[in-house]
Every structure is written in C-alpha cells, then in structure tokens.
Amino acid sequence: MTQSSTNLPLSGQIAVITGAGRGIGQAVAIKLSQLGAHTVLCGRSRPALEQTAAAIDTQNRTSRDSASGTPRTSVIECDVTDLHSVEALARLVDRTFHRIDILVNNAGIGLPSGPLHELAPQDWERVLNTNLRGVYYCIRSLAPLMIDSRTGGHIVNISSLAGKNALPNGAAYAASKWGLNGLTCSVAEELRPHNIRVSLVCPGSTNTGFSPHPGKNADKMLQPSDVAHVVAMLVTQAPQSFASEILIRPTQKP
Length: 254
Fold this sequence. Notes:
Number of helices: 6
CATH architecture: 3-Layer(aba) Sandwich
Shape: globular
Order of helices and strands: EHEHEHEHEHEHE
Structural class: alpha/beta
Largest sheet: 7 strands, parallel
CATH superfamily: NAD(P)-binding Rossmann-like Domain
Radius of gyration: 18 Å
C-alpha cells in the first residue's frame, strides 16, 4: 500500500524543476514527487518530460494524489534561454497553483572539450545562456511568486565541482558554473529576509550521459539519484537554518 501524500513531508508543495527530462533533473523530480510534492516538469523536449512523468507514475504507482484525485505532475515545455518562455512558465504556474514552494534550476549543457581560444563564439553563448542566464531568468520570473506567498521557499541551483576547480579545455563550462556559484551566494542573501533559502549543489562527475567522461568507471561515478538525495535533504531541513552549499564526490575515485 502506498503512503498517503498528505502524510509526506512535501505534501501540498509545488516544485518546479528545469531540465527535468533526463539525468539529474529527472531523478530530482522523481524524488520530490515521492516526498509528496506536485512536480512541474520543465524542459525543451516534451517527449523527454513525458518519460519523466511516466517514471514518476511508476515510482508512485499512481500519478494521482490519493486525497484530492488531482495529478501529481505537470509537464510544461520551457526554454530557459528564452525570457518570454520562462515568463510564460511563471504565469502558468501562478494561474494554476497560485504559488511555488521549490525551484530547482538544473537545466544545463556542456560542449565538446577544447582550448578556449578555439571555441566558437556561438558555443560560448550557448553555454553561458543556458547555464547562467537561464538561472537568472528563472529566478527573476519565479522568485516573486515565492515572495508574494509570504510562506518562504527553496531555490536549489545545480552547479558543479567545475565551478570550484580549474577545468582545462572546458573553460566556458567552468566559467558558467563559477558565475552560477557567485550568483547563488548573492541571491541567498537577497532572499533571506523573505524566508527563501537559496542553496548550491556542486556534484563531481555524474553518470548522466550529459557529457563524456573518458577513462572513468561509470559504476564508481555519482549517480543522478545521489544528487536528488541531496536536493531532498535541502528542501526538508529544519526551518531555522539552511545549508548554503553542498559539494558531492563519489566515495571512490572513478
């Protein structure tokens, strides 16, 4: 027998996850749904988002809230690099749910490696627009809903250990993540008066298919579920404190 969603720690909460069609975003969506949240799955590929919704359905045995009979997931196509698309997402969330409790900024891209001086300007723009500008757009559009609700909330930005260490032949990706780290720490101070906790998660090499990890043992790498577990910890912590930054490494070097 499944546990009633009314007894779960995130029951009644609305969680928006970007890049929810695969990898870490998919794992986070499944985990938060298991904890009772209504997950709003966002991404550019509707078929991929539908696969996540199906996975949530399988994990929960039913995609409907046992108490209210309403769906436990919503699928919304959204391109985080397009401000109009993100603003449309925010309007739809506001109109449908009248609130947002959790925002997980997970959408990101990487590109084939190479020295910065050989990187095409359009590739630089793609990386920075998705990994950094997209987070700004989402916070700009969705944080006001949290503020207006006066009930607090959580914003979790998925960064990388590449935002902490040098990454030769991956300078654009590293720059986007170093920038995201600074953005997160600054926004956390801005939103603390509104009881909104903004946290940064920096995983090491994760087995997602997101980018190649030549020479590494996939079984020893972090798995998407490892990152999802940390996100769940952040959004269920005691109300008088928050973990501002978590670095995740595999137990054994892959």
